[in-house]
Design a protein that fits this description.
Spore Coat Polysaccharide Biosynthesis Protein SpsA, Chain A, seven-stranded mixed beta sheet, alpha/beta, 18% strand, globular, single chain
């Protein structure tokens, strides 16, 4: 066993104190090799993970702002011997998605739990020695300015190394200003911390299929579907499983006037869903002291970016009381809940796009009342097809989909198109009739060709065809051809954004996209084309959205104009004919997209450098 403490010269004394806690003196202090450079933990991580002892089986790296439980190092040796092939995180902060993992572990009596898809908690992380030795090479090739904990997550995924989190944490965060620029995340402590590292009773590691968590003031649930996770609003999840009415009824009976209304609602949802999930995992009662401890951290975790430490300290008691009541209500409701609603047979098929995006869209459409199934081709029984037309269609996917639609007797076709069809037009705002023939712009022409292919097919087969032209899509798994995605990648990788005068932007949240498609399907076929967007942004407004939802990053004014950028679209027609109005919180959608870009490593996500994103 060897280890290192990453530090900046300004905090060398603190780092020496952490290293001295090891009675066998195996922990080295590794200082930032370029202390005058831009503040980043990534630069110091490389040498910290490279100083593995020749005979070491494991290597542990601490950051210099940690508090370590008594008995930690004997505990560390016990863990290393028991889990030789895994990464072990001894800390998880109350502000992360994995805070929900720790709460579920504590409430169900687990001592270990597998992390969900988020950056790896790296405040105190142990790796097998061979994996530790390979980190620097990976980081040099793929770091590209990404945050250290994101690079670590991508590295471990590339090596197939699972990450287990200690429950409770045996390392905590010392609340000192962040040299790496993370102080904007507010007051940060462990979700559940033990001041003494006790002997481990078991090394069984829990894996939860549903994880409620509270982050950025929003209650959400991570729900596992195969190898992918969907992060959705908790009230949406409770509606899916038929428990939202019970949640709302219990909420109506309790009040917490000391808390803002939005906080009351989001805390209640998180704790209620946590109780429902726990009851589904075990009927044993949770330890009251443990339950209080994990509910103490619920409010600070969800609100630490919006409130000061002093404000949160005052809010903790009423939030804890509300959360304990909601947790108990969730357990009771789960015991008495009827069976989960059975989904009706799918009548709508979603094809095209990436597998991840169409699966997500199908679930959102089902939430909106359209029983939907995703797939590469239409399926028997589906009378309607929604096809997600890709840009630069290679020419085989759409014809195959149309051939299958004809074979299965599809009675309605909706093409999810793009505002890019208006590229090259000079109008400040385009109605659906603005494109009257083949566009001169190559990108616009590819979208127009897809539209015409569908319309011609519909005319030949007597099937009504509608085209819904969407603004730049925002959300997890959304196509990454727009400015927001490019700027978000720049923010994550510490590259400044270049703003061009005169550009205006339209975005559509992935949830509004589903809502608009559901509204079109619910209405009689009237118009053949609709424009759909959630919101408009000026150049500076969009840059601020990126810095608020991803990472603070500078921007500068570029020269020239972007002639390829599409003009704005009028969305009056779809509202008038279907009643659709944007309803999603687009800021939440942008944040979800930013988190997906940072943390998801499926094939449909660009690499760490972001080189394949056109900006």
């Amino acid at each position: 066993m060897t280890g290192a403490v990453m530090t900046h010269p300004r905090r060398a004394a603190a780092a020496e104190g952490i290293a001295a806690r090891d009675p066998l003196r195996r922990i080295r202090v590794v200082a930032d090799p370029d202390p005058s450079g831009p503040p980043t933990a990534l630069r110091t991580a490389n040498p910290a993970w490279s100083c593995v002892g020749d005979d070491a089986t494991h290597h542990v790296v601490f950051q210099d702002d940690v508090l370590i439980a008594d008995g930690f190092f004997p505990h560390l040796e016990q863990v290393a011997a028991a889990v030789p092939d895994e990464a072990v995180a001894f800390y998880e902060g109350w502000e992360g998605r994995n805070s929900g993992v720790v709460r579920l572990g504590a409430l169900t009596g687990a001592q270990w739990a597998h992390a969900i898809d988020e950056h790896v908690p790296s405040l105190a992380l142990m790796l097998p020695a061979g994996i530790a030795r390979g980190y620097e090479k990976f980081a040099l090739a793929h770091g590209g300015g990404w945050p250290y904990d994101v690079v670590m997550q991508r590295y471990l995924k590339s090596r197939g190394i699972p990450v287990r989190i200690a429950v409770p944490s045996t390392v905590d965060h010392d609340d000192v200003p962040s040299i790496a620029g993370n102080s904007t995340h507010g007051w940060r402590r462990a979700t559940y911390f033990s001041e003494r590292a006790e002997n481990v009773r078991t090394f069984a590691c829990a894996a939860f299929p549903v994880v409620p968590y509270y982050q950025y003031g929003e209650s959400r649930c991570a729900v596992r579907y195969g190898t992918r996770w969907e992060h959705l609003e908790t009230d949406r999840y409770l509606r899916r499983i038929g428990m939202l009415d019970q949640c709302d009824a219990a909420f109506a009976e309790h009040d917490a006037p000391a808390l803002p209304a939005a906080v009351r609602r989001q805390v209640w949802l998180t704790a209620f869903a946590t109780g429902a999930v726990v009851e589904g995992l075990t009927t044993a009662a949770s330890d009251p002291a443990v339950t209080e401890a994990v509910m103490d951290s619920l409010g600070p975790g969800g609100l630490c970016e919006e409130y000061t430490g002093a404000e949160l300290t005052e809010m903790i008691p009423p939030i804890r009381a509300l959360a304990l009541t909601a947790f108990a209500a969730g357990r009771t409701a789960r015991r008495t809940a009827p069976p989960e609603p059975r989904l009706p047979a799918a009548e709508v098929a979603v094809t095209g796009g990436t597998a991840a995006f169409r699966e997500q869209l199908a679930r959102l459409l089902t939430d909106a009342g359209c029983a939907t199934v995703p797939g590469e081709r239409p399926v028997p029984g589906a009378h309607t097809v929604i096809h997600l037309a890709p840009s630069h269609d290679p020419g085989h996917a759409l014809p195959d989909v149309l051939a299958e639609a004809r074979r299965h007797g599809v009675r309605r076709l909706v093409l999810a198109g793009s505002a890019a069809v208006y590229r090259g037009l000079t109008a400040r705002e385009c109605t659906e009739e603005a494109v009257t023939g083949p566009p001169a712009d190559a990108e616009a022409r590819s979208w127009w060709d897809a539209e015409q292919t569908c319309r011609d097919w519909g005319a030949r087969n007597g099937v009504p065809v509608q085209v819904v032209r969407f603004a730049e899509q925002v959300g997890p798994h959304a196509p990454l051809h727009g400015v927001l995605a490019a700027w978000t990648l720049r923010a994550w990788t510490r590259r400044p954004m270049e703003l061009l005068d005169g550009r205006r932007h339209q975005l559509v949240d992935h949830r509004d996209m589903a809502g608009a498609l559901a509204a079109v399907l619910a209405a009689p076929v009237r118009s053949t084309t609709y424009n759909v967007a959630s919101a408009r942004y000026g150049e500076d407004e969009l840059a601020r959205l990126v810095t608020d939802t991803a990472r603070a990053t500078p921007w500068h004014r570029g020269t020239g104009t972007d002639g390829a950028h599409p003009p704005l679209m009028s969305t009056a027609l779809v509202s008038a004919e279907t009643g659709w109005r944007p309803a999603a919180d687009l800021r939440g959608g942008a944040r979800a997209q930013a988190q997906w870009l940072a943390c998801d490593t499926h094939d449909d996500v660009p690499g760490p450098e972001g080189a394949d994103i056109d900006d």
